[in-house]
Amino acid sequence: MPEVSTKPYLLRAIYEWCTDNGYTPHIAVVVDSSTRVPMQFVKNGEIVLNISFEATSGLKMENDNIHFSARFGGVSRDILIPVENVIAIYARENGQGMAFEAPVPATAEEAQQAPEQESSAPVLSSVPVSEPEKKPAEGSDKGDDDPEPPKKGGRPVLTRIK
Fold first, then answer.
1. Are 83 and 7 in contact, with CB atoms under 8 Å apart?
2. Does the global pTM surpass 0.85?
3. Which is nearest to 10 in space by CA: 90, 112, 95?
4. Which of 8, 91, 101, 113 could make an SS bond with 123 (beta carbons 3.0 to 4.6 A apart)?
5. Is residue 91 included in any domain, yes or no?
């Protein structure tokens, strides 16, 4: 029996963390032919979906797929997302969550050459501390070159670092 990826377990854990803390869980997904989402909301081959209890009906986060019903423009749609296509899950309110390696689209030629090759496990990497959070070295008197402080309010933004 092939080993199951840790990714679906991590997705379920972050989802549970979000809901336990009153946050709104969102997932960022790479859209391809195996993804069933409303295409009018896809931008640059990706879509971000609110998967909170209030926004979905019948949410099932399985090892292979995530599926649920949601309303888009007042119309109920059935959504199907392969777990391998999820590139991030995070809380809308503070941006905390986890990002995953984006799936590499296999060409038909590559698929024929290595049909038994399984998808690789998700790769996690640390994110460098942003400039405003770094503490200045003691004795440095660069008051004029201080970066702008982060803006308050607004919507958090998830930044993918490659």
1. yes
2. no
3. 90
4. 101
5. yes
